[in-house]
């Protein structure tokens, strides 16, 4: 790492550690001061204050030069490691190519969507590292709000203070019924939610599709009778195919699962927006690491092309 911004951070964070390292490398106060771009008297006074505070000598004179004492030599490997760690940390907050991105996403996106996005991004920025968490919608939003993640790929998108989002893809929600269901042969294929009087298979609380289904039912004045609560969309779809109930699920891009029929719902807003969520400007100290910004920009640019082909 070598940039004015990084140098500024390191100069503020670790001046004394750098002094010790410089003296060890040069064994000369004047040369050490020159390498640190500071006056020689300033370095001498700083080292003297440090030794007074510690109560032991770290540097000793040897004729016209200096060297580390035994205590200084014992300390030096730890100083070197601390500087290396701090240098990596500064790289993460000042440079986009060695940073880290904490990403949370829906489990359904972990099979193809997230791997495809990461693969494409890492071609352009191979040094960026990722911390990945798969979790339901509500937990994902809480993690971003609390600072536990930089970005979330989730659905639906929030309308709350402190979070902003960008839509990458919109899926239609459908009433999914077994193929022998009385509504399966409906001529119009558009039915009100209340037309399904059978028991429903819903996703568990905290899942995005469950939130949308509950909101849809409230608008329609309809409260479904729940037969099963599934962890994920694929399981709910399979339970419908087994004839165990009906469900509200995203339309399957490749067509209904065998044994099921998908019906358009007549009750208002029946879309599921999927997108990327991040803290609003001013949240988290108003700072967005460069690597996070690079990945968010990439997802906003590439996601609308990748996601429709890989979600279902």
From TrEMBL:
InterPro entries: ArsR-like_HTH, LysR_HTH_N, LysR_subst-bd, WH-like_DNA-bd_sf, WH_DNA-bd_sf. Residues 17-69 form the HTH lysR-type domain. It comes from the Bacteria. The keyword Transcription applies. Keywords: DNA-binding, Transcription, Transcription regulation. Pfam families: HTH_1, LysR_substrate. The keyword Oxidoreductase does not apply. Belongs to the LysR transcriptional regulatory family. This is LysR family transcriptional regulator. It comes from Nocardiopsis coralli. The lineage of its organism: Bacteria, Bacillati, Actinomycetota, Actinomycetes, Streptosporangiales.
């Amino acid at each position: 790492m070598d940039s004015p911004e990084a140098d500024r951070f390191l100069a503020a964070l670790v001046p004394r550690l750098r002094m010790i390292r410089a003296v060890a490398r040069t064994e000369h106060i004047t040369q050490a001061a020159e390498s640190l771009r500071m006056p020689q008297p300033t370095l001498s006074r700083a080292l003297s204050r440090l030794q007074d505070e510690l109560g032991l000598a770290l540097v000793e004179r040897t004729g016209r030069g200096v060297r580390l004492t035994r205590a200084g030599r014992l300390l030096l490997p730890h100083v070197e490691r601390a500087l290396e760690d701090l240098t990596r940390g500064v790289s993460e907050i000042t440079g986009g190519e060695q940073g880290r991105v904490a990403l949370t996403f829906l489990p359904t996106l972990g099979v193809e969507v997230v791997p495809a996005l990461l693969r494409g991004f890492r071609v352009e920025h191979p040094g960026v590292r990722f911390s990945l968490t798969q979790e339901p919608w509500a937990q994902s939003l809480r993690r971003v709000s609390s600072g536990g993640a930089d970005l979330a790929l989730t659905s639906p998108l929030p309308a709350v203070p402190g979070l902003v989002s960008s839509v990458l893809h919109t899926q239609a929600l459908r009433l999914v019924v077994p193929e022998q269901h009385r509504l399966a042969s409906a001529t119009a294929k558009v039915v009100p939610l209340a037309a399904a009087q059978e028991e429903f298979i819903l996703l568990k609380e905290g899942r995005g599709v469950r939130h949308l289904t509950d909101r849809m039912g409230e608008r329609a004045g309809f409260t479904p009778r729940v037969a099963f609560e599934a962890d994920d969309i694929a399981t709910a779809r399979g339970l419908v195919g087994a004839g165990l109930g009906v469900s509200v699920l995203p339309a399957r891009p490749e067509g209904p699962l065998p044994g099921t029929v998908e019906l358009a719902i007549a009750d208002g807003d029946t879309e599921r927006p999927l997108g990327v969520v991040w803290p609003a400007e001013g949240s988290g100290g108003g700072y967005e690491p460069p690597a996070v910004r690079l990945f968010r920009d990439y997802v906003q640019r590439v996601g609308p092309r990748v996601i429709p082909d890989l979600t279902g």
